[in-house]
Amino acid sequence: MCGIVGLYLKNDKYESKLGELFEPMLIAMTDRGPDSAGFAIYGDDVSEDWVKLTLRHPSDTFNWAGFTDQLATALACEADWMQNSNVAVLKVKAAESTVREWITANAEGVLVLSAGQSIEILKEVGLPENIASKFNLSGMKGSHIIGHTRMATESAVTMEGSHPFSTGSDLCLVHNGSLSNHNRLRDKLKREGITFETENDSEVAAGYLTWRLNNGDTLKGALENALKDLDGFFTFTIGTKDGFAVMRDPIACKPAVLAETEDYVAMASEYQALASLPGIENAKVWEPEPATFYIWERK
């Protein structure tokens, strides 16, 4: 059992308060997932000739300044960074593949959690309240955010096994449920060039969407194909640079509720996680239909 939550802003009214609005939503899912928690937030975009990466090191005292200076010198590029606990958001004027190659070769212990122009992923083992406090979630700004609280049932309680999972540029996914065909799909996706960091079935779902998008699908097309190719029980919430989506499997045994106002769309495993949102008493509230996906995108 896990908890998933998401908040997508339809305008800029609440962008400066996105983290403040989202924190109680994440904490409300503690009973569904006390083992670990995480979130992906979108905002503070870099231009197309830059890449933004979220990097993690086990130590809070890792020398991110020295790391960034070495990278910028080696790649002869501009770079900037901001530390948040044991995580750093690194902005580099270089190709993502080049930056990743340098990190792999020169920065032992540094793990790439996400990459793109907008996304930042922060996650750790522990209670959702502690994770929110560790990363100062309430002070964050942005356009949309999705989160997850995990109760491990099929694998160990680790940071690597926590959600969200990101397997492509500005793409991430959180999942409540389990996939029955993830081993076969993982092998297929590896042959197609998708890489995985864990044995978690949810990472396979994220990898599948990356593969479909890389092959020219729109988000709508990728989700249509996912309904055909993914077997098991699932409620997904998906984040992209410009969009936010929710999808349920044909049986729809994993709970989900959506709420929409003129200012936002919110999703949660339980309504209680939405109760603190402004204007929720006047929102359109409904349960997502089985074998159906819902997409909101900025044009």
Automatic annotation (TrEMBL):
<keyword id="KW-0315">Glutamine amidotransferase</keyword>
<dbReference type="InterPro" id="IPR017932">
    <property type="entry name" value="GATase_2_dom"/>
</dbReference>
<dbReference type="InterPro" id="IPR029055">
    <property type="entry name" value="Ntn_hydrolases_N"/>
</dbReference>
<dbReference type="Pfam" id="PF13522">
    <property type="entry name" value="GATase_6"/>
</dbReference>
<keyword id="KW-0808">Transferase</keyword>
<protein>
    <submittedName>
        <fullName>Glutamine amidotransferase family protein</fullName>
    </submittedName>
</protein>
<feature type="domain" description="Glutamine amidotransferase type-2">
    <location>
        <begin position="2"/>
        <end position="299"/>
    </location>
</feature>
